[in-house]
């Protein structure tokens, strides 16, 4: 880990961070003892209301890095919004809300609400009338509430943009800047991101003052343990190849990524024809249905989740056996976030990329070159067994 360009290798325990007994009880209940590098780096500065810009790989504990200080700072007697977290997707917002509630388990009187599109706004207005001190929101829905005057942000002290690169890349920069301009009493701003894009730096230059820069590199300590394979197969053999690989590996929880909404629907249907439980998840599916599908997947009622890249970030699923790139992704970054759904929480993960034409092959070669990932060539032999292959 680097802090302001200086390498810091100190291992930090939560017990050494000077946290309140209530927060320590919540952390102990989760079974955590050792803070991750991004937590050990960010928490002390956040506790002092310093601006922070943190670059860390997906799955390294960024939520607790800003969540612990935010919860510590909340006055349970207050009836104002004091902490705000902005997230790019509904799934990530819900996940952050749930983790913050876990941290508030023993801090009586601290209330958290989640605001996102796709849920009836009246239900959210009812929750806001309970005077939560922490709001987790997607930018668009938060602006809806601001316009309706159902939420006030003038007393907010701490603001966090989680997955900042993704949020700004999705076109939320105008909403984000409007929201930041509504908080005259803001004491600190945290930008947490897997990559630091030009747009993230623009926000930092305008809205942060002497930010502490924390960089956690994907070294062997925090790099996910994911074995990556490439199989060259005919397009019409992709489904059967995927099914065979699931049988060989005994994978019971699989996410298969497709590049289009139509392809996720088709893949789900093709797998169901082969008696494998699968449902699609993409942007055209109603939020209520998406949440129900995710819940079924978490509970083991679905063996496969067929998803577009809307599901690559922010899903509260951390024990996926294998990821399939049914379609090779269009961008290098998508590949990183797709395979990052497996191999989490120190578990071993597996990712398969199914290549059916020259274009996909060139794209995967480019991904391997630019991301530094080791993608092994394999194929199914005549007996239907997996063995090393040649390019």
Main traits of this protein?
17 strands, alpha/beta, Rossmann fold, globular, eight-stranded mixed beta sheet, 2 domains, 391 residues
Describe the model.
- It is built from 14 helices and 17 strands.
- Helix 2 (37-47) runs parallel beside helix 3 (62-73) and helix 3 (62-73) packs across helix 4 (90-103).
- With 391 residues, the protein is an alpha/beta fold.
- The protein has helices at residues 21-30, 37-47, 62-73, 90-103, 121-128, 139-148, 164-169, 173-181, 198-207, 238-249, 261-273, 287-298, 332-339, 358-371; strands spanning 2-3, 6-7, 52-55, 83-86, 112-115, 134-137, 158-162, 188-193, 212-215, 225-232, 254-257, 278-281, 304-307, 322-325, 348-355, 375-380, 386-388.
- The longest helix has 14 residues, at 90-103.
- The mean pLDDT is 88.
- A nine-stranded mixed β-sheet has the order 2-1-9-3-8-7-4-6-5, sandwiched between helices.
CATH homologous superfamily placement of the largest domain: P-loop containing nucleotide triphosphate hydrolases
Which shape, going by the Cα principal axes?
Answer: globular
The helix-and-strand class reads: alpha/beta
Low-confidence stretches: none
Number of helices: 14
Assigned CATH class of the largest domain: Alpha Beta
| Number of domain units | 2
User: What CATH architecture label of the largest domain applies?
Assistant: 3-Layer(aba) Sandwich
Residues in helices, as a percent range: 25-40%
State the end-to-end distance.
36 Å
CATH topological fold name of the largest domain? Rossmann fold
What is the CA-based Rg, rounded? Answer: 22 Å
